[in-house]
């Protein structure tokens, strides 16, 4: 028997993750009722496969042929359906779990080498003396140059309590630095937060299995740091958040709602429609909320923004979101990877499908884009993806996805602060947005 995991994709590029686990005994049984024409087509596939195996100029890899055929079949459906081999499936599970055996370093690729952006607090990297700006040139005596970033990261990850040796070039040091670290369980921080005088700022970077618990910690900490009589509200920053797990999007929305529908999903069969409702208990104690979105806010991010917008629980500020309004199901295939297949569309509480349209902000605030990036900051969104699910004639989705690295220059963020502090009128701003 196959088992399936209902999931919401991480947008376009980051893959998908599991949410709810159910049995699916009917998946293979459907083939038994296939008409004769279908069997003839399957025989055609077998004939072509055998011809390639016997006559292609070089001996092909049978497994890769089969996997490529499966992937081609799924990718012909829509941009978010695909086949994952065993390694890709494992990587997806690690990503959505939000924890793995590793060192605790945020890294990037620079001139073919791995550069440390920052060591994460209280991890082997931080405790072992790895510093921001360090260049990793060797991992366990293997040169990093020539490896992709993903390959280098894979080599630094591994079983908890296993060791890894890094050779580092450090600015200001005349010789390379050798550091041996012991891997530990690393938990990805899906939520970052800080106080901004009388406002609580919460940034959600992805929706993995840790997100809701991280959000609860953030809300608890911020409400303790800022006295209730001074706390003006919260900024929930979902910009450039590609999405993630459906159940986490529901839980995050529920954290700010007392009642009502959060999202519904509707598949091919009407009897498979599902509705998800909020439970009593607003963790933010009813304080005002501003949600920031942009062209990089997709999938689970759009569920949260749409739910809070429809219930008038939050004011949505920024630019139009990506427009990914479909749900994917992950079907594990034993030890042979998994299928990722679109099985439903989701709808906001008011019945809106944002597929290929996106969430329109209540107040549009365009970022100040540096001259050298103008025109390069735009994302065309779901509507520009070949083979996307259609949603009527008016499809737009996507917009500017630029976020300044310095918060002081972040026009959208500062506007959200001013809105919560009453320095601008939400009613006037909404009217101005509609006029535009």
Describe it.
The chain has 436 residues and is an alpha+beta fold. The chain folds into 3 domains: 3-97, no CATH class; 99-187, PDZ domain (Pdz3 Domain, Roll), CATH 2.30.42.10; 191-327 and 344-435, Alpha-Beta Complex (2-enoyl-CoA Hydratase, Chain A, domain 1), CATH 3.90.226. Helix content is 27%, strand content 25%. The protein has 11 helices and 21 strands. The protein has helices spanning 26-29, 36-55, 62-75, 86-97, 124-128, 149-156, 211-225, 246-254, 300-310, 411-420, 426-435; strands at 3-7, 20-23, 82-84, 99-102, 105-110, 113-119, 135-139, 142-143, 163-169, 177-182, 184-187, 191-196, 199-204, 233-237, 261-267, 274-277, 289-293, 315-318, 326-332, 338-347, 363-364. The strands form 4 sheets. Strands 1, 2, 3, 15, 16, 19 and 20 form a 7-stranded antiparallel beta sheet that branches. Strand 19 (326-332) and strand 20 (338-347) form a beta hairpin. The longest helix has 20 residues, at 36-55. It is globular and about 75 Å long. It starts with a strand and ends with a helix. Residues 1-31 have low confidence and may be disordered.
């Amino acid at each position: 028997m196959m088992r399936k995991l209902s999931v919401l994709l991480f947008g376009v590029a980051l893959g998908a993750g599991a949410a709810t686990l159910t049995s699916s005994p009917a998946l293979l049984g459907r083939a038994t009722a296939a008409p004769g024409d279908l069997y003839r087509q399957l025989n055609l596939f077998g004939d072509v496969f055998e011809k390639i195996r016997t006559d292609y100029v070089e001996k092909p890899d049978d497994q890769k042929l089969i996997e490529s055929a499966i992937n081609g079949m799924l990718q012909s459906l829509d941009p978010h359906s695909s086949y994952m081999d065993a390694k890709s499936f494992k990587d997806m599970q690690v990503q959505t779990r939000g924890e793995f055996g590793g060192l605790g370093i945020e890294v990037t690729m620079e001139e073919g080498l791995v550069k440390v952006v920052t060591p994460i607090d209280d991890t082997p990297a931080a405790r072992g003396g790895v510093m921001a700006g360090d260049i990793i040139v060797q991992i366990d005596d293997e040169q990093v140059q020539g490896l992709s970033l993903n390959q280098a990261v894979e080599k630094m990850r591994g079983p908890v309590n296993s060791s890894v040796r890094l050779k580092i070039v450090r600015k200001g040091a005349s010789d390379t630095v050798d550091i041996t670290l012991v891997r530990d369980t690393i938990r990805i921080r899906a939520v970052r937060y800080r106080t901004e005088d009388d406002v609580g700022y919460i940034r959600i970077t992805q929706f993995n299995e840790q997100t809701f618990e991280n959000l609860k910690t953030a809300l608890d900490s911020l409400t303790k740091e800022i006295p209730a009589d001074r706390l003006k509200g919260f900024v929930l920053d979902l910009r450039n958040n590609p999405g993630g797990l459906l159940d986490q999007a529901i839980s995050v929305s529920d954290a700010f709602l007392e009642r009502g529908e959060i999202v519904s999903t509707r598949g091919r069969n009407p009897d498979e429609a599902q509705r998800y409702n909020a439970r009593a208990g607003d963790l933010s104690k009813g304080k005002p909320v501003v949600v920031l979105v942009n062209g990089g806010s997709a999938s689970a991010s759009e569920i949260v923004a749409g739910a809070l917008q429809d219930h008038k629980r939050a004011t949505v500020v920024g630019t139009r979101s990506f427009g990914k309004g479909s749900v994917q199901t992950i079907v594990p295939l034993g030890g042979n990877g998994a299928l990722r297949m679109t099985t439903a569309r989701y709808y906001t509480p008011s019945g809106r499908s944002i597929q290929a349209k996106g969430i329109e902000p209540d107040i549009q605030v365009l970022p100040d884009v540096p001259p050298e990036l103008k025109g390069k900051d735009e994302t065309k969104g779901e509507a520009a993806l070949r083979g996307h699910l259609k949603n009527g004639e008016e499809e737009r989705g996507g917009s500017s996805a630029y976020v300044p690295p310095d918060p002081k220059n972040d026009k959208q963020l500062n506007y959200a602060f001013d809105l919560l502090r009453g320095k601008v009128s939400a009613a006037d701003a909404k009217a101005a947005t509609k006029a535009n």
